[in-house]
Every structure is written in structure tokens, then in C-alpha cells.
Amino acid sequence: xxxxxxxxxxxxxxxxxxxxxxxxxxxxxxxxxxxxxxxxxxxxxxxxxxxxxxxxxxxxxxxxxxxxxxxxxxxxxxxxxxxxxxxxxxxxxxxxxxxxxxxxxxxxxxxxxxxxxxxxxxxxxxxxxxxxxxxxxxxxxxxxxxxxxxxxxxxxxxxxxxxxxxxxxxxxxxxxxxxxxxxxxxxxxxxxxxxxxxxxxxxxxxxxxxxxxxxxxxxxxxxxxxxxxxxxxxxxxxxxxxxxxxxxxxxxxxxxxxxxxxxxxxxxxxxxxxxxxxxxxxxxxxxxxxxxxxxxxxxxxxxxxxxxxxxxxxxxxxxxxxxxxxxxxxx
Length: 331
Prior knowledge:
Elements: H1 15-21, H2 23-29, H3 80-90, H4 97-112, E1 119-122, E2 127-130, H5 143-148, E3 151-153, H6 182-193, H7 197-209, E4 211-215, H8 218-240, H9 246-259, E5 260-262, E6 278-284, E7 287-293, H10 296-300, E8 312-315, E9 321-324
Parallel strand pairs: 3-4, 4-5
Antiparallel strand pairs: 1-2, 6-7, 8-9
């Protein structure tokens, strides 16, 4: 469970600690509901460790626990060379927490119709001062409306816009009362407006079901999922002075495994799932012939014509219906 340490040394959530909570927690966080398999590495960074760490290989629990427990680490704990290589290869650049806060504040300013709802920024010092008073809602809107409001971080990396356990650029941990993520704000509202553990859990689940994000690289995706799960545990502990039950943690992990998913954001498909230049043998009236498959979506830059595997998400409010993410897009 969460400790009291601060600084870069404590920000890394160990996969062994997740397995200790419940054997199925880590398995759930590794699940890809579109493919029915696990999320995959989608990066060449780990291939020196063996074939199981190849770009297209699934991330399995045994590859990141036990003696391999330090394989996946937050970006700030990677070497400068690794950070530079990922920036070059995948345009991976993480955003400081003060910038995340400023942009999240704009979202809330639009929703509430006023500024400085959760905190007041100091743009010169790149800090903020938390509003410690209970959040007041505008006429016609309630705290439940806020918790239900849909929020999403695109190309989320370690999800610094959703949860802010630490600054992804410095590694400095952020105290619970100072956190600025979109989901942090929802959980603060839940804590301010519920008393019983049952009510808190019900509305925390609503908060998670209405918070989304997608990411290409499998290691970042797992880090994001872990951060969202650990955040749930931390807010529950702060509210009730004890850890939530394993079954509650498992269910939040299940929601996260649907709502934070692996996707090529430009195509709406599982990364690298489109077939281009692949030779297939097909049976025709004149015998077996070779046929080269090309993806019309890739060739025509048409997001609705890819032959890759389109990513599925769950519509929690519509009888938990599974839908393609691209079907939510207009045009």
C-alpha cells in the first residue's frame, strides 16, 4: 500500500506490490479488451532482454515481477539516453505538472463558469495554491454532474493530466492535497460529498468510468494504469484511514483496463495492426494466387477504412455496450 516517502525514489509502483494486493490485479491491468490478449510492448527499448521483450510481444506478469521487477520504470527514472531516444523515436515529451494544472484549470473554468475553482496559479513561480474550502457548484449543476462529466487524455503517456502522483518531468512526488489531475479533482469532489465507504466507492467508480485515455507504448500504458489504480487507493485511505478491500481494487482495475487503452491515436486501431505490403495466398477460379494486401485507410489517410484492428471501449452508461472508439467521432 502507499507509503509516506517523497521524491523520485517512491514514485515507482512495483508490480510485485500490485500482485501482493490480489493475484488478478496485475493481470487485469495488463489486459487488452480489444484483442483479448495482453497489451504489448510497442517499443524496441527492451529487446536486449530477450525475445519475450520484442516489440510485438505481450507484456506478461513474469516479465516485470520478481527478478524483473525493475524493468518498467517511470520516464524520469530512465537514463537521459533512454529519454532522448524515446523522444526521437516516438516524440515522447512529458508535460510539467504546472502546465497540466494550467490547462486542467481552463477545462474547469469553462465547466464552472469561474476561475480558480480548485487552485490559484502562480505563473511566474510555476506553482499553485490549493483552494482548501469545499468546492461550490454553480446554479443548475451539482457535484454529481461534475463526477459524471467525461474527461480524456489523448496520447496519455503516464497520464499526468489525469492523475498527478508526481511531476513526470522532475520526479517530485505531489502531496494528495496538492494534486491537480482531472481524476484527482473528481475524487476530491467525491470525498467532499460522501460520508460512507459504500457511497464513496459507488461515486469513485462513476468517476473512473467517465475518465479515459489512450497510449501507444505498452510500458507507458501500464504506468498510466498503475498510477490511476494507486490514486484510488490513496484517496480511499485519506478518507477512511484504511486500505480498500481487494474486491474494490480489482473492480477499479477492471474499469481502468477498459478506459485506458492501447491505440494508434491517428488511426483508431491497435498500434501496427494494419496490413500493408503483406502477401497472402488466395484461392481463385484459376487456382491459388498471391495477393498483396494494402491498407486503404493508410493509403488514403482515411480513419474509417483501415484494415487493422479497431479499438473497442465500453459505454458504461449504455448497458456496458462495447463500441469502436472511432464511432464516437463525428464526420
